[in-house]
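Posting this for the archive.
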Amino acid sequence: MSLLDLEDLNDVAIRAAKKVDADDAIALTSRVTDRMIRFANNSVTTANRIEEAELTVYLAHERKRAIASTSNLDTASVRKFVQDLFESMKGLPASEYVPLPGKASKYSPSGVGHDRKIVEVEEELPELAKEAIDASLSAGGKRTAGVIDAGDVSTAILTSTGTSGSDRRASITLNVRAFAERDASGHGLSCSSTLSGFDPASAGRRAGSDAKRMKDAVEPEAGSYDVILSPTVASNIVESMAFAASAFSVDAGTSYLVDKLGKSVASESFNLTDHGTVKGGLGGRVFDDEGTRTRSTPIISDGVLRTYLHNLTTAGKWKTQSTGNAGLVTPHGWNHEVGGGDSSREEMVRETKRGIILTSNWYTRFKNYRTGEFSTVPRDGAFLVEDGQIRRPLKGMRAGDDLQRMFSSVKLLSKEREWIEWWEVDTPTLCPWILVDGVKITRAYE
């Protein structure tokens, strides 16, 4: 299916929407091509190529709204899909409704984040996986497993008011985990919007080195510690902060940032920006799901909350403008960027009297979204720091805090930043190492 086919499908959907007399309609069609290599026990086990296409349609009529998606994309099926969606609206109650802008916009592909070498990569993937495996083994890992995913996404939009356009992006990501012993593991990532920026060997070395260093890990004493967060861990927590900055979360009462506009919510050194498109970014496009042009939006500047992320509906309620972050239902980020500092990871260690380095985490869960209270489980490389020296590996713990206290307690940020995207970080994030004081650490088995 070519990009022209995507645009043709949108045209079929919008014509069908006008035929049933919808007040507003949006057709958003996407095609995803994934080339994936999985490896385990130091050998490639699976190679897959997956192509999927999907049409999402938004309809509004008499202040009623409906959204649905289909992957049945022949012309007759699309027409029936739109008709059935319109019929389903009859029993719905009226809702908050903001009409689409009357002035049409035309979008061309931005060209940012679409490296044809990634689009064409396939036969090279086993060799790239071997680079990660060999580097991990050389660094001290005994067994290595992971996945490389080279993805290409094309998206086209057409609205009933005439807004139209298309965009494309491509990215390649590696997630690798190494084991030196059963409970001694390390984790590495490499994420890039260009094939030349992809570095599987570096990710493999990190995983293998941390696995080797995790031998004979012990459980820590429970208490309050300074914590040095790797970009991998920090990005996971930053994503929760950005989710709380969605106006939908604020309106739903599930955000700790309610009533915080213009107020300090983080250290003065902390800055968070969302980019629709940005050099090096793995996500995003030039238009959002409603056809509004995306842009760079400072969410937090010098520790102060500057804006919530809006679509047309939330912007109407808040008497402001859309930030280009629709989500037909919920506004969301495209590419997060955390500003860097002037430190290095080594300087953070030297500055730490009693602390823990966390390189990877999972199972981040919230006790209370409204207050921002959460906990997360460190894994794959955690190390005790005492008097500026790394002393021993740690295991079997949970880290807990609330988002405002944590980000208000940022002491140092590194100059070095990395793009992070994996199963614990859905929104691509450019992030430094971050030193935070006073994080509560508990033993997992108490």
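Residues 216-443 form one domain. The chain has a mean pLDDT of 96.
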